[in-house]
Design brief:
Strand content of chain A: 15-25%
Shape of chain B: globular
Radius of gyration of chain A: 13 Å
Strand content of chain B: 5-15%
Strand order of the largest sheet of chain B: 4-2-5-1-6-7-8
Distance between the termini of chain B: 46 Å
Oligomer: heterodimer
Distance between the termini of chain A: 6 Å
Structural class of chain B: alpha/beta
Order of helices and strands of chain B: HHHEHEEEHEHEHEHEHHHH
Helix content of chain B: 40-55%
Shape of chain A: globular
Radius of gyration of chain B: 22 Å
Number of strands of chain A: 5
Number of strands of chain B: 8
Number of helices of chain B: 12
Chain lengths: 135, 301
């Protein structure tokens, strides 16, 4: 694996239009040395996976505030696997009830960051070396 | 998906394997496997048209490119975009936010790759020339190259593209700063963007006057385009599509030369080289020659 900075796609899936939080995370990741591809708001799961594939990103950060996480996240995970992108680390952020965290993790989400997560936590997690590398 | 060798990826590339394209573009962007890629890259079935978009930050390059994509698709061509944003020289990080403005419809005829351009390296990311060749071999008809937008003309961009589009925005006064910098000469087409603003016509007239002053630029078209109002993009594409494909058909050797230069620079930074550089004057000719060849790994006397 090269020493190039990790590439992370940040996207908001579903009908949620609040983007302040995701922009704060984007800047924190950039300041930590990552290459952040901002895919934007109101994305469909299919569109997000297409971005991850074409950008050859190692990480996907999904931000969801709309409560639709238990349908949208599994859909994204399935599409990633179908596209041969099962190695991509998926992070979920936003308003996620505690009870939903374990099922999300079981589905394959690498980490769920609820509201109030420190930016340092997110940065530290993404910068940890992972065995599931490709390249 | 198992890791595939560069040769396998290159075999799959002209067969429109999008995954292979994505991986190869990453290798090129990171400067990895360049000699293998350049040696084994199949020639393209047909040349692609490369158009570079340059202009100061905030002039609207991403928005314009975003509006151009559907125009190009409607004309029946496939299009790839290499969108460059600046890389922080402090953290090495980058916020690659250009594709955000380019729409997110899923279309196999469109491919967007976001790139970070290191500071001081000019207007585009490294190895863009290799990436263009990969996209061309995959089969894209058009490659749009969006520069970082330093605002200064970058001669290297001219070599990478068949056409350079300079974007300007309407100015409040009549201070034609861009003319002083001499960047008008590098443009094949000048676009006065944000043409919905009131001073657009005046700016276009000023640009026209400036271009008319020189034999080299008096035939350069000036077009007014408003991405906010979706006006002028079809005319812009018509103009660009009519231009000749003038991109220097750089043979693989040209890119290999650049790679070799970079390799030599890295080699020269090693301790052995430094030691030799400090003592070579005291060495007999034969000894100097022997040590040089050893360092170069030539393996012969």
């Amino acid at each position: 694996m090269s020493q190039s900075p990790p590439r992370v796609v940040l996207a908001k899936v579903g009908l949620d239009g609040h983007d302040r939080g995701i922009k704060v995370v984007a800047r924190a990741l950039r300041d930590a040395g990552l290459h952040v591809i901002y895919a934007g708001l109101w994305q469909t799961p299919e569109a997000v996976v297409r971005v991850v594939a074409d950008e050859d990103a190692g990480w996907l950060g999904l931000s969801l505030l709309s409560g639709a996480h238990m349908t949208l996240v599994p859909r994204v995970l399935d599409l990633l696997r179908d596209a041969g992108l099962g190695h991509v680390g998926v992070l979920v952020g936003g308003i996620i009830p505690e009870d939903d965290i374990p099922p999300l993790m079981t589905l394959g989400v690498a980490r769920v960051f609820g509201p109030g997560t420190s930016l340092d936590d997110i940065v530290a997690f993404v910068k940890e070396p992972r065995e599931a590398a490709h390249g | 998906m198992a890791d595939l060798s560069v040769d396998t990826l290159l075999e799959r590339l002209p067969k429109k394997d999008r995954h292979a394209l994505a991986r190869l573009l990453s290798f090129a962007a990171q400067g990895e496997h360049l000699p293998e890629i350049l040696r084994a890259l199949p020639p393209p079935a047909k040349p692609c048209r490369v158009v570079a978009f340059t202009g100061s930050g905030g002039v609207g390059k991403s928005s314009l490119v975003g509006r151009l994509i559907p125009v190009i698709r409607k004309a029946g061509s496939t299009v790839a975009v290499l969108a460059c944003d600046p890389q922080s020289s402090v953290s090495g990080g980058a916020l690659l936010g250009d594709r955000f403005r380019m729409g997110s419809a899923i279309d196999d005829g469109v491919f967007i790759r976001s790139l970070a351009a290191p500071g001081g390296h000019g207007a585009v990311a490294e190895h863009v020339d290799v990436m263009v060749r990969l996209l061309e071999t995959f089969g894209f008809d058009v490659v749009l190259l969006e520069t970082v937008g330093a605002g200064q003309g970058d001669v290297a961009v001219r070599d990478l593209a068949d056409a350079v589009v300079l974007l300007l925005q309407p100015e409040a006064g009549d201070d034609i700063q861009w003319d002083k910098a001499g960047i008008l000469e590098l443009a094949d087409v000048v676009v006065v963007h944000k043409a919905d603003l009131p001073t657009a016509e005046q700016t276009a007239a000023q640009v026209r006057s400036a271009l008319d002053l020189s034999m080299r630029t008096h035939t350069t078209p000036v077009l007014r385009v408003s991405s906010a109002r979706s006006q002028g993009h079809a005319e812009l594409w018509q103009t660009l599509a009519a231009l000749p494909l003038r991109r220097v058909e750089a043979p693989p050797a040209a890119a290999l030369l650049r790679w070799t230069q970079a390799w030599l620079t890295r080699r020269a930074a090693t301790a052995e080289w430094q030691a030799l550089a400090a003592t070579w004057r005291a060495l007999p000719e034969a000894e100097l020659r022997r040590r040089l060849l050893a360092l170069l790994g030539a393996g012969h006397e």
